[in-house]
């Protein structure tokens, strides 16, 4: 008996699914954009190991699987009890629940927010805020690859948030993205556009939770922060163990603005997070921090690019990884300091703890500096748990597994501590422990 | 309490302890002195069970049990405590949680019920007062950002909380100003009773003005080359080590 292996051409496959999405789309502006994106998609190729930015991340198993667009599948049912179980709790927040990329208003709780800011799906936003959406949608993204075209041509609902000028949101917005698949491998394109007005401030908790079987979660987020605005994003990724998570976040920052992004990766079979930030004016601050915990055969790739285009800006990056079993971590951090960007401060650090002999990490710092008066540092360490600290804890009668958990908490602390919501810090510390002791 | 017989130990293939003999009984205070690099911390670490050190021969018997075959955490649970020369920082883990975990693990091993949170808090308040640890220091992460003196006080605070049978204090007095030295010594004297024992590792006679030892031993090149009463410390303070190390390899 011969086994028939159906070879799929990913570009062709996703171009076809885009066609169906576009056919069902009643919004002219968006279907126009999606059609253009679809033809771009059909003319490019997905990255391979030969693509410099992707040389440590093999996409063969992702691109070789036949994921069906969630819009073509039966709706994945999520109840409010399911939401209760997975949402972040113990702090006041507005809640938006997306299931397979589609906003579920009946599971969400953000009425109060609608008096303060603009918040809707992307198609809805066209009706009321066409100019601002037109100005930014798909315009912020840089270094586009097939994934950008894939997402734009295939997304269905998406999320648009605009914080008007001079609005400080006291409560964070929790965006719970539940991805579910039953029976068939599911493709879920998720898209976000966040616009923060002048002198405004907001905090977003983005939580990705996986349910059911194998799926491919593809996310594109575009962020624009106007003069003197501040945006904090805490992203917590808890995909299930058979799944793929490919996220690209592009950020454009204006003068005196502040962007803080924290990326916590726990789940997923293959995870790739790209963050590109453009510091397009003076006196900007940008912090990109991350923590990833992997075991089994998980592969977690974080790729950052910070473009210092103007003087007097500061960027901070701290990515920490804890890798067990045969897992693999990748960190690549590119910093470009343009000729004009005098008095730039750019700090980058990547620290990894390997808990097993078979775990590996690849770190690729990349500094391109064309200005002469700058302060740029980068460092990378790879090591095991500190022996003398282990001895200290054991010598107090504490058993090895608890000692290990304490040391890992200690290692993760410098990332976790930057999260300004105490309840979320506590949740993160428990997630760290749970994910370390997972088999 | 503890009996060390002909103990030899090495680290990274290098023999440091060359045959140590020492017996400490309940109710006694012993001081171990000796020049830098003579092996004092090595001895303390081997007894406490640091895995980098390998005991190559000899025996250590602790309350009738073979110590060297015991896991590090079990030695603590049997009643051994090491005050570290260089206490380690553990960011993100509060002193309170750390101590509560330690106490309850030790109690569990000894078939005692866990301390209730209230009993634990009461005990913490009582012991903190003795060493002048204020509550803000206790709620902070273990040793994180502590000054040198605060770290040493925290070691004594842990000693008072854990109430071991034998405390080995490795240079707990080094780097302390006179007020801190008084506080630390007072803590040790509070701890000490006729059922437990203390081994002080120190370079300074001044500590021994506050904690009076029954015996003093001089460690040199991994061996105890002289033992005596408390007057030996004065002699060492005056004359240095040369007069006894002369003729030793
Ligand atoms: N990893 C190692 N490899 C080789 N030799 C080592 C190692 N660690 C320590 N030593 C040596 O062991 C010897 C004893 O060191 P130890 O720390 O026990 O001395 P000490 O008496 O406590 O000194 P001090 O008074 O300075 O604290 C020293 O010569 C030291 O250099
Ligand atoms: Mg020493």
Summarize the structure.
With 439 residues, chain A is of the alpha/beta class. Chain A is built from 9 helices and 20 strands.
Question: Which two chains touch over the largest interface?
Answer: A-B, 26 and 32 residues
Largest sheet of chain A: 10 strands, mixed
* Poorly predicted runs of chain A: none
CATH architect. name of chain B = 3-Layer(aba) Sandwich
Strand content of chain A: 35-45%
Overall description:
The complex is a heterodimer of chains A (439) and B (249). Chain A is of the alpha/beta class. Chain A has helices spanning 10-24, 28-43, 60-64, 80-86, 122-136, 146-154, 387-394, 400-416, 422-436, and strands at residues 68-69, 94-99, 102-103, 118-120, 159-163, 173-181, 186-196, 201-212, 215-225, 230-238, 244-253, 258-265, 270-279, 285-294, 299-308, 314-323, 328-337, 344-354, 360-369, 374-383. Chain A has two domains: 10-281, no CATH class; 388-439, no CATH class. The longest helix of chain A has 17 residues, at 400-416. The radius of gyration of chain A is 21 Å and the shape is globular. The model of chain B has no long low-confidence stretch (mean pLDDT 93). A six-stranded mixed β-sheet of chain B has the order 6-9-10-3-11-12, with helices on both faces. A four-stranded antiparallel β-sheet of chain B has the order 2-1-4-5. Chain B has helices at 40-48, 72-77, 95-109, 117-131, 135-139, 148-162, 178-191, 205-210, 231-239, 242-245; strands spanning 2-11, 14-24, 29-33, 53-62, 65-66, 80-83, 90-94, 141-142, 166-170, 197-201, 215-220, 223-228. The A-B interface holds A 386-389, 391-400, 402-403, 406-407, 409-410, 412-414, 416-417, 429 and B 45, 48-52, 71-73, 75-77, 81-82, 84, 86-93, 98, 101-102, 105-106, 109, 141, 158, 162. Bound molecules: adenosine-5'-triphosphate (ATP) and magnesium ion. The site of magnesium ion has 5 residues of chain B, from helix 1.
Write the layout of secondary structure elements.
The complex is a heterodimer of chains A (439) and B (249).
Chain A: H1 10-24, H2 28-43, H3 60-64, E1 68-69, H4 80-86, E2 94-99, E3 102-103, E4 118-120, H5 122-136, H6 146-154, E5 159-163, E6 173-181, E7 186-196, E8 201-212, E9 215-225, E10 230-238, E11 244-253, E12 258-265, E13 270-279, E14 285-294, E15 299-308, E16 314-323, E17 328-337, E18 344-354, E19 360-369, E20 374-383, H7 387-394, H8 400-416, H9 422-436
Parallel strand pairs in A: 1-7, 2-6, 5-7, 6-8, 7-9, 8-10, 9-11, 10-12, 11-13, 12-14, 13-15, 14-16, 15-17, 16-18, 17-19, 18-20
Antiparallel strand pairs in A: 2-3, 4-5
Chain B: E1 2-11, E2 14-24, E3 29-33, H1 40-48, E4 53-62, E5 65-66, H2 72-77, E6 80-83, E7 90-94, H3 95-109, H4 117-131, H5 135-139, E8 141-142, H6 148-162, E9 166-170, H7 178-191, E10 197-201, H8 205-210, E11 215-220, E12 223-228, H9 231-239, H10 242-245
Helix pairs in contact in B: 4-6, 6-7
């Amino acid at each position: 008996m011969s086994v028939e292996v159906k070879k799929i051409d990913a570009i062709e496959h996703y171009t076809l699914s885009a066609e169906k999405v576009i056919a069902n789309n009643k919004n002219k502006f968006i279907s126009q954009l999606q059609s253009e994106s679809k033809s771009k998609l059909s003319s490019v190729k997905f990255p391979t190991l030969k693509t410099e930015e992707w040389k440590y991340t093999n996409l063969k198993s992702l691109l070789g699987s036949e994921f069906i667009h969630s819009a073509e599948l039966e709706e994945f049912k999520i109840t409010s009890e399911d939401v209760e179980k997975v949402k972040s709790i113990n702090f006041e927040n507005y809640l938006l629940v997306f299931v397979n990329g589609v906003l579920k208003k009946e599971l969400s709780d953000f009425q109060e927010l609608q008096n303060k800011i603009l918040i809707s799906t992307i198609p809805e936003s066209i009706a009321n805020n066409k100019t601002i959406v037109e100005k930014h949608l798909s315009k912020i993204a840089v270094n586009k690859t097939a994934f950008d075209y894939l997402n734009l041509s295939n997304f269905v609902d998406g999320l648009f948030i605009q914080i008007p000028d001079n609005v400080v949101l006291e409560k964070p917005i929790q965006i719970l993205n539940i991805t579910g698949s039953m029976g068939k491998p599911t493709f879920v394109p998720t898209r976000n556009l966040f616009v923060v007005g002048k002198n405004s401030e907001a905090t977003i908790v983005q939580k990705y939770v996986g349910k059911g079987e194998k799926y491919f979660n593809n996310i594109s987020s575009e962020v624009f922060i106007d003069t003197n605005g501040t945006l904090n994003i805490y992203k917590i990724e808890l995909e299930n163990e058979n799944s793929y998570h490919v996220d690209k976040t592009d950020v454009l920052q204006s003068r005196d603005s502040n962007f803080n992004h924290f990326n916590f990766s726990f789940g997923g079979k293959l995870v790739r997070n790209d963050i590109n930030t453009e510091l397009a004016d003076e006196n900007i601050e940008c912090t990109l921090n991350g923590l990833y915990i992997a075991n089994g055969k998980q592969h977690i790739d974080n790729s950052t690019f910070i473009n210092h285009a103007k003087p007097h800006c500061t960027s901070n990056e701290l990515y920490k990884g804890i890798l067990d079993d045969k897992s693999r971590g990748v960190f690549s951090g590119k910093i470009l300091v343009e000729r004009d960007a005098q008095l730039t401060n750019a700090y980058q650090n990547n620290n990894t703890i390997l808990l097993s002999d078979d775990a590996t990490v690849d770190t690729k710092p990349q500094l391109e500096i064309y200005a002469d008066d700058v302060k740029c540092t980068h460092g990378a360490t790879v090591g095991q748990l500190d022996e003398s600290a282990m001895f200290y804890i054991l010598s107090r009668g504490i058993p090895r597994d608890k000692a290990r958990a304490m040391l890992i908490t200690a290692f993760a602390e410098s990332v976790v501590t930057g999260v300004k919501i105490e309840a979320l810090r506590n949740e993160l510390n428990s997630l760290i422990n749970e994910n370390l002791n997972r088999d | 309490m503890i009996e060390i017989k002909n103990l030899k130990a090495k680290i990274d293939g290098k023999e440091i302890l060359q045959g140590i003999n020492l017996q400490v009984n309940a109710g006694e205070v012993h001081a171990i002195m000796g020049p830098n690099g003579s092996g004092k911390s090595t001895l303390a670490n081997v007894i406490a069970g640091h895995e980098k050190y390998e005991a190559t021969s000899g025996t250590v018997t602790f309350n009738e049990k073979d110590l060297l075959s015991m896991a590090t955490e079990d030695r603590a649970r049997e009643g051994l405590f090491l005050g570290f020369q260089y206490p380690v920082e553990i960011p993100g883990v509060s002193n309170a949680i750390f101590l509560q975990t330690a106490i309850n693990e030790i109690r569990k091993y000894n078939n005692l019920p866990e301390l209730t949170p209230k009993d634990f808090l009461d005990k913490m308040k009582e012991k903190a007062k003795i060493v002048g640890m204020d509550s803000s220091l206790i709620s902070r992460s273990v040793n994180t950002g502590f000054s040198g003196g605060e770290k040493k006080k925290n070691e004594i605070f842990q000693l008072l909380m854990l109430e071991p049978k034998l405390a080995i204090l490795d240079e707990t007095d080094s780097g302390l100003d006179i007020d801190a030295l008084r506080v630390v010594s007072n803590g040790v004297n509070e701890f000490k009773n006729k059922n437990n024992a203390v081994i002080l590792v120190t370079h300074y006679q001044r500590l021994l003005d506050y904690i009076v030892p029954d015996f003093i031993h001089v460690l040199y090149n991994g061996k105890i080359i002289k033992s005596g009463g408390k007057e030996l410390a004065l002699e060492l303070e005056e004359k240095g080590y040369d007069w006894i190390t002369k003729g030793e390899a």
